Amino acid sequence: MKPFSEKWGRPPEEQFGIHVPGDYLRRLGEKMARGIHFMDGGQFIELPLRIRVGTDIDGAPPDTLRMVREQGRVYAIEPGIVVRRLVPPEAPAVSLLEIQVWGLWSLWVTVS
Asked: Are 80 and 101 in contact (CB under 8 A)?
């Protein structure tokens, strides 16, 4: 079954989708990254650091994504949302976060 496929056997005319503007998802990812960064180190994310948010990580090695899922610190396991963060020991201001929603899709956030 595809992640966003019909799960209850309703006919197409009874199905509907919810449109969430991409800018809202970007702002959500940024807000979560800023909050976690501040909670961990008491510092704001300021230049030269930048936050990038996306639904996938183009060209990221599969090992990196696996490391976030296996070794990243888990910050939230709420109904429907899991947040993981991986910080390289040699660069504590840099991080990679996965915000997984309903186990179906993820926002990936980089702070670098």
From this structure: yes
Give the type of residue at 23: D
Give 42-70 pLDDT, tens digit per residue: 888 888 999 998 876 666 667 878 888 89
Check the CA dihedral 79-18-99-49 and report its sign: negative
Residue that the structure tokens 């800018």 belong to: 23
* Residue whose tokens read 């959500």: 28
Task: Classify residue 107 as exposed, middle or buried by CB count within 10 Å of its CB (0-12, 13-18, 19+).
Answer: buried
- Cβ atoms of 95 and 42 within 8 Å: the answer is no
Burial class from Cβ neighbours inside 10 Å (0-12, 13-18, 19+) for residue 40 reads middle
Q: What's the pTM?
A: 0.79
